[in-house]
Specification:
Cupredoxin domain-containing protein, EfeO_Cupredoxin, signal, alpha+beta, about 130 residues
């Protein structure tokens, strides 16, 4: 009887571990790399699936310091209350450096991203 109980416990544990492993791979945080040059991002449009992302921003002699602002399409990017603050990089990105944002969970919709310090246009990010 003990062997049967131990066997059932091991089978249940294996199924649980496998299910958690599959869930963690499906829910993995993805990294999106963005590069800024003088007056622009080199990535003009992004299309992503719903999920959680970290944005890495590189400064390729764009300006002394650059950053990232992400907003929902249709909102005024000049108003900080419209910014998705998790998308801000951890610190301003200096020449030749790369900095990352916090984790940002994006749902279906259209967003805009830009850098007010490098005075880039607003670019489109679509989440399907």
């Amino acid at each position: 009887m003990k062997n049967l109980i131990v066997g059932l416990f091991l089978v249940a544990f294996t199924f649980t571990a496998t299910a958690q492993d599959k869930m963690s791979k499906a829910d993995a945080v993805k990294t999106i790399s963005l590069e800024q040059t003088k007056g622009e991002f080199t990535q003009k449009t992004l299309t992503l699936s719903e999920g959680t992302y970290i944005f890495e921003v590189s400064n390729n002699n764009a300006a002394p310091e650059v950053g990232l602002v992400l907003i929902e399409d249709g909102k005024d990017g000049t108003k900080p209350e419209n910014h998705i603050t998790e998308a801000y990089v951890s610190q301003m990105v200096k020449h030749g450096k790369t900095e990352s944002s916090k984790e940002v969970t994006l749902k279906k919709g259209t967003y805009k991203y830009f850098c007010p310090f490098n005075e880039t246009p607003e670019y489109t990010l679509i989440v399907k």
